[in-house]
Structures are given as structure tokens and as C-alpha cells.
Amino acid sequence: MFDEPRRRPWLLIVIALLAVGTVPFPFIGRPQVVLGGLPLWLWVSLALTVALAVVTAVATVHYWKDDSSE
Amino acid sequence: MNDLTVDFVFACILYVVLLVVIGAFARQARRDSTLSDMFLAGRTLGFGVLLLTLFATQFSGNSFSGFPAQVYREGLAYSMGVMFTVGVATGYLLFAPRLYRIARQQRFVTPTDYLRYRFGSPILSYVATGIFILALTNFLLAQLTALGQAFFTFTDGDIPYWLVVVLGGIVVLVYQVMGGFRAVAWTDVFQGVLIMVGLVLVVVMLWAEVGSPAAITKTVALLRPDLAATPDLRTCFIWLSNFLLLALGSPLYPQALQRVYAARRVPDLKRVIAILALIPLFTGSAVVLIGAAGIALFPQQGLFASDEVTFRVIAHLMESNALTYYPVLVVMVAIVAAIMSTADSCLLSVSSMLTKDVAAQRKGLSAEQAERYTRLAPWFSIIVMAVVVGLAMRPLTTLWGLLVIKFEILIQLSPAFVLGTLHDPDDARGVTVREVMAGLVTGLVVTLAIYMSSWESLYGLHAGTVGVLANYIVVAGSRWVRLQRNRPLTAGLTTLSAARRNRAAVGGAASSPRLVGE
After folding, report:
1. In-domain check, residue B333
2. Do B418 and B445 share a domain, yes or no?
3. Structural domain for B278, as ranges
4. pLDDT 10s digits, B202-234
5. CB B370: neighbour CB atoms within 10 A?
6. 3-class DSSP assignment, residue B192
């Protein structure tokens, strides 16, 4: 049996949205808001980066199935 | 020479002796005289070695000095480094599962083996080999340059740059030629642990001596508000472009692909890639913190080359607290380890491609003959290292510049792997060699045209990013046109494939060779 994460369009869309979401486009030209010493755009970007890492890790383990060497 | 220089040199001598001893053990562990054993350790890498060798290989000298330098020059916006190193693992998802499956069935040794199997074009194979070798030689050059700079800075110029480049090159050559891939992977285990320990120590020391990440950011905002500002639109495009470059380019490094081939089992490989997605959350944050601490400690830029910021920061840590002496010494050796672990992998990969994809192909050897054609490999390693050491005597540009140039070219091979692995070689729905070549030529022309023009980039998008987008459009577009023209035929083949799968599913037929990758 063989399966791989890229066969799920919804997963690729989620990954693409998270990747674009990490880039602070919505904060361009807005006044800097600081929370706990870090700019808000940095918090948002880091949070979405964590989400991207977790989605990538879970997708790799969960949706990659290959019995050729197991 | 001061005490630190003497202790650092002594620690490096110990480190080098250990590498050579590991190389000797790896030589003893050789099973046979084949390319698979020499360049893939017989495809026996388990979870632990695979994880640390991939980590150590990807965490290069550039990660320790180039990324913090970028943060130091451009500001907190380069926290994007965390995001795009996560992207490296995301990039693997686009083709690694299927490539691994085919590689095991076909017993690939080099990345070009896959292209030869999938497209059967000597021209594409030679062009791809040329691009891989160019990228790797470039990367090896960057590592040797970084090694020379690191020693020069750590020892305040007591040890000349040229001497370190020559000795570093010889050491890498010795243990790599002795033990092949096994030596490189085993030394990577030691080096990977050392890099991780070094990063933990840097973070702890920065926290204790300079302040928490929030305190460092506050200081940056106070001293250099321009470097803590919200990124502008151009920087956001650079951010996005860097993500695409790393996600599409980094998994295509031949040394990374060969580690995928070398994995013993799928469960090990997928757990390793999953962990590699999470590791940058710490390692990326650590290198961003080093750059930010550099701004806080040395806000007036231009006093030293930005590539030196990591070394300046750890020198400051040592001066500020005597207790940090030995931890800083470990960090210094970890930086050397990060550089050498990448350099040895690059050298081995270039040697494997010159042996298998150039020499064996030119002699017209069969697959079995090529598998035993190992005698030239050490000579290729020696020649490549000699050339690169010669080039490193005159550093061309900053480390970051070297990294980008390499990616710009390398990612043009992405469609061949990402789209190529979607179908088997004789499946009419798959991309053809003509389409891939048309995309590759378009991508390279667009990249080089933008790079050599006065623009260098398109509003923050790297030349290579624009090139690879054009590349994908040409490949996917020409495939779509072909499928539209041959619609009845493709529909028939699709039906045939579905029928074969159905038969296999009910156990009525052995799986077809055409569906090996399914």
C-alpha cells in the first residue's frame, strides 16, 4: 500500500495558507503594537510558523503510508 | 597567542583526531566495494543516525553565521529564517515519499539516477548533473570560506585564513576517503549533537548575559528602531520568496536526497522528516536571537563585516563573564562542526556524481558494472577539494550571496522531481522530458536574465523564484496542451490504470511493473 500527503489538495491548501500567513502582509503600514516585548506581527508570524511545523510533522507521519520497507 | 586561541586550537585538534578515528572505524565497517556501500552506507541508516546526519548536513556554517548576519543587517524581519527553515521539511512532502519508494526498487545512488530512470534523456541527465555539481561546489566553497573566517576571527588573526582552508580541506578529505558515506554519517552524529549543545549553550548564555528574547527585542527597538519596524511590502515579498527557495531548493540538495535513499525503512524516514519540521522552531529561533543580540550589543553597524556578528557576540559573552569560557569554547567548536559536517557531505555527493553520472556513463557501463566502479571516487574527491581550496583563497562574495546564487540555479530542477514523481515513466499522463527541458531552459534563462540585469530581483522576489514559477508554468502548461490534444488516448490509459489497480486490489493479479510507484 502506498499513500502520500501531497495527494490531499486540502492539505496543500492549508500548508500554502499557513506559509503565506506567516508573512506579515496585514501589518504593513500599521502602527507597531508591542506585546510582552515582541511586536505583534512577530507573535503572529511565529505562531503560524509553529502551526506550519506541526501540520508538516503530522501530515508526514499520518498520511505517508508505504509498506515496501516496513 | 592568548589562552583562548591555544585552548581553541587544542580543542579543534582533539575534534579532528576524533573525526579521523571515526573515519577509520567506518572503513572497518565496509561491507563490500560497491557504490551503494561507499555513497549510501548500503542503505542501512536507522532513525538516530539519519536524523542527526540530515540535521548536521542542513545546519551549515551559513546557519551559524550567515543567518545571524542577515538579522544583524536587516533587522527582526529576518525572523523569517525560522519559517523558511521549517519550509525545508515541508518541501520534502512534495516528492520524498514516492522518490524513496522508487529509489529502493531501482537502487538509485545519485539524484540523477532518478532523472535517468524517469525521463531516459542523456541530455537532461548531464544538465542536471552539471547543476547539482555547480550547486554543491558552490556550497562546499562557502563552507571552506566560513571555516577560514571562523578561525581568523576566533584567533584574532593568529591563524591565517589560507592555512585553515588548506588544513580543513585535508581533514575532510582524509576521513571521507577512508570511510565514505558511513564515515560522513557517523561523524555527523557527533557533529549534530555538538551543534545542538552549542546552540543550547548560546541561548542560555545570551539569556543570562544579554537578556531574554523580549528584553533583547526591546533593546533593538530602543537603539535601532529601523531594525525592529514592521516589514515593508518588499521585505514581505523577500520573505515569501525565501520560503519558496528553501522549500523547493533545500530538499533537492544531492546530499539530502542521498540521505533519503540511504534510509533503512519508511517509518524511520518519515519520523525524521517530521522531527526536522519541528527542530527549526528552536534552532532557527536561536540563530535569530544571535543576530538580534548582535544589534543590541553592536548597534553601530560597519565596525566589522556583518558575517562576523556570531563570532563577535560569543566573544562578548566570554569577555563579560569568566564562567562562560568553556561553554563558549564548546560553541566555537560547534561552529566548526556545523561547517565541516556540511562540507564533507557536499564533497562526497560531488564525488558520487562524478563517478556514477559522468565517468560510468561515459564508459557506457551497465548498472551492475557501474555499481562496482568505485576506484575513481577517491581521486574525484581529491581533485574537487583541490579546486575548491584554490577557489576559497579568493572569497567571491558574502556567505549569503553564495547561498542564494546556488539556490537560484538548483531549484530549476524542482519540477522534474515534484511533477516527475506524480506518474510512472510510461504513464502518458506524466510530464515528458521535452516539457521538463522546456521548463528548465525557461527557468534558467529567466533567472539568469533577471540576475544579470540591473534589477537582480523583481520587487523582492529572487530571480530564481521568478524563474522557477515560469518553469512550473511552462511544464504544467505544455503538459495540459498535450493532454488536451491526446484526450481520447489519455482517457483510455487512465481507464486501463484504474482497471489494473482494481484487479490488484481484489488479488486477481500481481501488481504491474507500470504501477511500481503507486
Report:
1. yes
2. no
3. 3-25+62-364+371-422
4. 999 999 988 998 899 989 988 988 888 889 898
5. 21
6. helix
The sign of the CA dihedral B315, B312, B405, B474 is: positive
Partner-chain contact B240 A15, CB within 8 Å: no
Q: What is the C-alpha separation between B30 and B38, in angstroms, rounded?
A: 8
Below-70 pLDDT ranges, chain B: 1, 395-405, 456-457, 488-518
Let me know whether B257 and B352 are in one domain.
Answer: yes
The C-alpha cell at B64 is 551559524
The CATH number of the domain holding residue B79 is 1.20.1730.10
Assess whether B357 and B504 both reside in one domain. Answer: no
CB-based contact A28 B236, cutoff 8 Å = yes
Co-location of B393 and B467 in the same domain = no
| Record: contact B277-A20, CB cut-off 8 A | no
* HEC per residue, B332-395: HHHHHHHHHHHHHHHHHHHHHHHHHHHHHHHCCCCHHHHHCCCCCHHHHHHHHHHHHHHHHCCC
Total count of residues recorded for chain B: 518
Query: What pTM, to 2 d.p., does this model score?
Result: 0.88
Interface of B with A in 347-386 (CB under 8 A): none
**A53, A57, A69 member nearest B266 (Cβ):** A69
Tell whether B351 and B480 lie within a shared domain. Answer: no
- The answer to whether the CB of B95 falls within 8 A of the CB of A7 is no
Main-chain dihedrals φ then ψ at residue B455, nearest 5 degrees: -75, -45
User: What residues in A contact B233, CB-CB < 8 Å?
Assistant: 25, 28
Same domain, residue pair B336 and B466: no
pLDDT digits (tens, 9 = 90+) for B483-499: 998 876 655 555 555 55
The count of residues in chain A is 70
Give contacts of A68 with chain B, Cβ < 8 Å: 101, 104-105, 266
Q: Is residue B502 classed exposed, middle or buried when 0-12, 13-18 and 19+ CB atoms within 10 A define those classes?
A: exposed
Helix (H) or strand (E) run with residue B303 in it? none
**Among candidate residues B422, B445, B463, the one where a domain is terminated:** B422
Q: CB A23: neighbour CB atoms within 10 A?
A: 25
Q: Phi and psi of B229, rounded to 5°?
A: -70, 160
- Check residue B229 and report its DSSP letter: S
**B50 occurs within a structural domain:** no
Q: Can you tell me which residue has the cell 527553515?
A: B85
Same structural domain, B466 and B504: yes
What is the domain count for chain B? Answer: 2
Q: B185 with B145, same domain?
A: yes
Would an 8 Å CB–CB cutoff place B472 in contact with chain A?
no
ipTM: 0.95
